[in-house]
Write a structure and sequence with these properties.
Blueprint: E1 2-7, H1 12-23, E2 28-34, H2 39-49, E3 53-56, H3 59-70, E4 79-82, H4 83-91, E5 98-101, H5 109-117, E6 121-124, H6 127-144, E7 147-150, H7 153-161, E8 170-177, H8 195-199, H9 208-216, H10 218-231, E9 238-242, E10 248-254, E11 259-263, H11 269-277, H12 309-319, H13 323-339, H14 347-359, H15 369-385
Parallel strand pairs: 1-2, 1-5, 2-3, 3-4, 5-6, 6-7, 8-9
Antiparallel strand pairs: 8-10, 10-11
Length: 392
């Protein structure tokens, strides 16, 4: 029996993780849950899975949760710790063998670090953790016996494809991207893109932030930085191809010209199951891919005019140090401002670019979680303070 904690249990990845637990109840058991302010759903999860420890956003949410749980029958005493302290406690819970990290944004940095320092296997679904503090996380895993397994479908696919050869035989990693909702939209109409249009992803159902990142393709740029840390490859050996069908989740090309690809349906339960049960492959009850129904698999290069965020991310990866943390934080605020109606769609990348320009002369090493959070905070303040005019 493998015991797990889930960071972000009420989000889409957290709910998919619990579906995997349901499918493998004889192999997986939940011992810790951390959520934000969706106290009602968390209470339902607690009553079903009966964890030892839970965390919520703040004291007020903890009080609400206690009131709801007080009416539950036959529920054993469950410890509730609010805030960052609680999330870190759930992540490092001694009884947990593995942690699924799905807290959105930089809020996941400290809990993931706590899990790795406690020697846990961490399935990372939050790419921002490795973008902002990749060196810190990989070092913590090495020094404390932790393990990082990717839950992002693209990096999970690469992890699987890398089993076909030795690392020194890798020519390049190829990350695939759906292209989002604006792959074929007239560039002349990008100034008129609405929030609703940007959230309408063609193949995946995701939260608002990642949906907007897919529309700008910043998500793919962040994945380049994540792949750099996960697989110890320089950015020039990490490519992106647009693949609208989202069936080939990523590929690895070897020096002999062989390309190994991983295919499956667009369902996060597959990479979550892989991360939780690895190295075993276990028969799953989830929907299978019917290759006979796949008439075409298309691949296209990334259009830099349509998706300028991608090159910003490559440049940040090449610069290294604090630049990726600044990129990530500025993007989070720019997306937040777009969703609040403060920015036009094209303003997202513009804000990020201007924050990066302000940071260019101050790039420094990220040697600790505090370093990552310092530059994260700086970039957020900068992105909030910039005007909304898009440069032409």
């Amino acid at each position: 029996m493998r015991t797990i904690s889930i960071l972000g249990s009420t989000g889409s990845v957290g709910r998919s993780t619990l579906a995997v637990v349901d499918a493998f109840a004889d192999r997986l058991r939940v011992v810790g849950l951390a959520a934000g302010s969706n106290v009602e759903l968390l209470a339902q999860q607690i009553q079903q899975y009966r964890p030892e420890l839970v965390s919520v956003r703040n004291d007020q949410d903890a009080a609400r949760l206690r009131v709801i749980l007080s009416a539950a029958k036959d529920l054993p005493r469950i410890e509730i710790i609010p805030g960052l302290e609680g999330a870190c406690a759930v992540a490092s819970l001694p009884s947990a063998d593995a942690v699924i990290a799905a807290i959105v944004g930089a809020a996941g940095i400290a809990p993931v670090h706590a899990a790795l320092r406690a020697g846990k296997r961490v399935g990372i679904a939050n790419k921002e953790v490795l973008v902002a503090a990749g060196d810190v996380m990989t070092r913590a895993a090495r020094e404390h016996g932790g393990e990082i397994l990717p839950v992002d479908s693209e990096h999970n696919a690469v992890h699987q494809a890398l089993s076909a050869g030795r690392r020194e035989e890798v020519q390049r990693i190829i990350l695939t991207a759906s292209g989002g909702p604006f792959l074929t939209r007239d560039l002349g109409t990008f100034d008129d893109i609405s929030i609703e249009a940007a959230l309408a992803h063609p193949t995946w159902r995701m939260g608002n932030k990642i949906s907007i990142d897919s529309a700008t393709m910043m998500n793919k740029g962040l994945e380049v930085i994540e792949a750099h840390h996960l697989f110890d490859q320089p950015p020039e050996r990490i490519d992106i191809l647009i693949h609208p069908q989202s069936i080939v989740h990523s590929m690895v090309e070897y020096v002999d010209g062989s390309i190994i690809a991983q295919l499956s349906t667009t369902d996060m339960k597959f990479p979550i199951q892989y991360a939780l049960l690895y190295p075993e492959r276990v028969a799953a009850p989830f929907a299978r891919l019917d290759l006979a129904k796949m008439r075409t698999l298309d691949f296209h290069e990334v259009d830099a005019r349509r998706f300028p965020a991608v090159e910003l991310a490559y440049a940040a990866c090449r610069a290294g140090g604090s630049m990726p943390a600044v990129l990530n934080a500025a993007n989070e605020i720019a997306v937040e401002r777009f969703l609040a109606g403060e920015l036009p769609f094209m303003g997202i990348v513009d804000i990020v670019e201007r924050v990066l320009e302000r940071h260019a002369g101050n790039v420094s090493e990220i040697a600790s979680v505090d370093d990552a959070l310092h530059w994260d905070g700086w970039a957020r303040n900068e992105a909030r303070g910039l005007d909304v005019a898009v440069r032409r």
